[in-house]
């Protein structure tokens, strides 16, 4: 485990980004439209956030809700626009109708990223076979993280899976960082850290007032303290 656990916060705009960085976030996931579980933001939004903060930004590549790739060529075009604007880290993940990884769509998108680092997001929690998905993606350039709750229902349901996958760290398909997100609460953190997991992703937990409110510096700081070995506040 690294000396400092990574804290990633979902940011919708510049105000979110500035607050998250002030609270101690290491990285932001940039999205829009949380009603659709997070879609690709506008290039202008990315540019504004990039100018406002100096931490890592991972840009969501998803044009519609769910886990189908949709129009792959349009997706590739959006990825190209983001790369041209300076984006160099991404988040993506596509499944086919049978719940298997849509390898053609993933490879097509990744091919446009030029080796940039990227996260395969919570599509893994809806896959028919997590282990098969990991092994099919093994070796794709830039893949360094899986964002996962361990189960579609969230961390409460998936904790055992997360711990089992952490124990396989270093095996083929299990070399990437586990970034835990989806129903994550502060009380989950100690057992996850003890298992060697060093990546944590929060969205609603950074907004005590709900998704209609901006990121709270204080809420993010509570997570930072917990990850650094101190005490946090309320999760969510």
Automatic annotation (TrEMBL):
Gene3D superfamilies: Copper homeostasis (CutC) domain. SUPFAM superfamilies: CutC-like. Pfam families: CutC. GO terms for molecular function: copper ion binding. InterPro entries: CutC-like, CutC-like_dom_sf. Belongs to the CutC family. PANTHER family: COPPER HOMEOSTASIS PROTEIN CUTC, COPPER HOMEOSTASIS PROTEIN CUTC HOMOLOG. This is Copper homeostasis protein cutC homolog. It comes from Streptomyces dysideae. The lineage of its organism: Bacteria, Bacillati, Actinomycetota, Actinomycetes, Kitasatosporales.
């Amino acid at each position: 485990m690294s000396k400092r656990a990574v804290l990633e916060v979902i940011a919708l705009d510049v105000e979110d980004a500035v607050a998250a960085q002030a609270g101690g976030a290491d990285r932001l996931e940039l999205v829009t439209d949380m009603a659709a579980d997070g879609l690709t933001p506008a290039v202008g939004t990315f540019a504004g956030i990039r100018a406002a903060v100096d931490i890592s930004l991972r840009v969501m590549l998803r044009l519609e809700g769910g886990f189908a790739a949709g129009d792959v060529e349009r997706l590739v075009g959006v990825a190209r626009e983001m790369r041209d604007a300076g984006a160099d880290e991404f988040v993506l993940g596509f499944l086919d109708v049978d719940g298997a990884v849509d390898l053609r769509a993933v490879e097509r998108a990744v091919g446009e990223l030029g080796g940039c680092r990227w996260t395969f997001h919570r599509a893994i929690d809806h896959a028919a076979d997590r282990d098969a998905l990991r092994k099919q993606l093994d070796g794709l350039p830039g893949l360094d993280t899986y964002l996962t709750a361990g189960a579609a229902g969230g961390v409460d349901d998936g904790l055992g899976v997360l711990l089992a996958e952490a124990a396989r760290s270093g095996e083929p398909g299990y070399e990437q960082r586990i970034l835990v997100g989806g129903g994550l609460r502060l009380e989950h953190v100690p057992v996850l850290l003890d298992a060697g997991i060093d990546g944590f992703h929060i969205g609603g937990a950074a907004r005590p007032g709900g998704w209609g409110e901006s990121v709270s510096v204080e809420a993010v700081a509570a997570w930072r303290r917990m990850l650094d070995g101190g005490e946090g506040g309320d999760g969510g």
